[in-house]
Q: What sequence folds into this?
């Protein structure tokens, strides 16, 4: 053994405790989860601000301001829930490598999103009946009006982004360019949009109906 | 990947069950909000139902229940942080009210 060899650290095998999860994370999925969690904190900030304003107001809905249409919004909620199931079916079809079925179910999901957005447009601006803006719910006039438009508008932007994302993945799947995990990622985003809507529906629509003010 | 007809039927049942649970929870929420007898408990009941629905969504439609423990912990973190923040705010409001 030479002097140089004597200074070389002996090669040892690292002995870590067994970890069944090591190396199993999918980077794309992990990135989507990190994005969703940071996005959740944005929504949490808005909903907490809403809660603080709501709890601190002696009168939440002022005279002349319209109430929210719960049956109509409940219908929109059910549309979004149904679209959450259809995107699971699309993911299932993608796992089974059935491109045609994947495209069909992604299309149905995107249609659900478009229906929801049309409903939200009708609620804000009115289509067959006057919308909330024409009935006296004006942004900036009260905390009730401003929080309503900011929270539902921010969520509506997410639904719009989700519909575009769904259509992009649909197009890529139809042309055979989509990779296996793409449908799973768009499905995760869509479920998140649905999850947030359920919280918005309860906090913004249902609590004022049953609570004080 | 080949999928057997039994597996397809099993999944269809699973999806229908998910749909039924979420529709049921939504209807319960609407019922609690509309029925006036609950009084002050309306808000507590609604928040509990909303939380239950959110957890169900995360675990089953977003498949967190089938994910690794590390991912589940990572996903739970921001939810708990938001809940803690809400609790701190409520405690602070109660303290101001009592002073």
A:
């Amino acid at each position: 053994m030479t002097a140089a060899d004597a200074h070389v650290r002996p090669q040892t095998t690292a002995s870590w405790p067994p970890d069944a999860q090591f190396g199993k994370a999918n980077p794309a999925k992990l990135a989507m989860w990190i994005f969703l969690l940071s996005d959740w904190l944005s929504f949490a900030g808005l909903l907490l601000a809403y809660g603080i304003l709501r709890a601190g107001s002696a009168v939440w809905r002022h005279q002349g301001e319209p109430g929210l249409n719960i049956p109509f919004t409940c219908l929109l909620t059910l549309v979004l829930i149904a679209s959450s199931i259809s995107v699971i079916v699309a993911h299932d079809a993608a796992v089974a490598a059935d491109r045609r079925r994947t495209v069909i179910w992604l299309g149905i999901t995107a249609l659900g999103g478009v229906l929801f957005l049309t409903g939200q447009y009708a609620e804000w601006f009115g289509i067959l009946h006057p919308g909330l803006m024409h009935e006296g719910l004006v942004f900036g006039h009260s905390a009730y009006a401003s929080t309503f438009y900011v929270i539902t508008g921010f969520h509506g932007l997410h639904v719009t982004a989700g519909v575009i994302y769904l259509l992009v993945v649909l197009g890529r799947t139809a042309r055979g360019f989509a990779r296996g995990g793409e449908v799973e990622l768009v499905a995760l985003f869509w479920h998140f949009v649905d999850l947030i809507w359920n919280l918005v529906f309860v906090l913004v629509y249902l609590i004022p109906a049953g609570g004080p003010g | 990947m080949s999928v057997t007809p039994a597996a397809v039927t099993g999944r269809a049942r699973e999806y229908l069950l998910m749909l039924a649970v979420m529709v049921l929870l939504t209807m319960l929420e609407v019922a609690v909000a509309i029925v006036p007898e609950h009084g002050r408990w309306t808000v507590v009941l609604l928040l509990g139902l909303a939380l239950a629905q959110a957890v169900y969504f995360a675990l089953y439609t977003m498949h967190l229940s089938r994910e690794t423990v590390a991912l589940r912990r990572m996903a739970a973190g921001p939810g708990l942080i938001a809940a803690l923040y809400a609790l701190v705010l409520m405690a602070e409001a109660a303290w101001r009210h009592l002073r």
In short: Residues 59 and 65 of chain B are 5 Å apart (CA to CA). Chain B touches chain A through 44 residues (CB under 8 Å). Chain B has a mean pLDDT of 83.
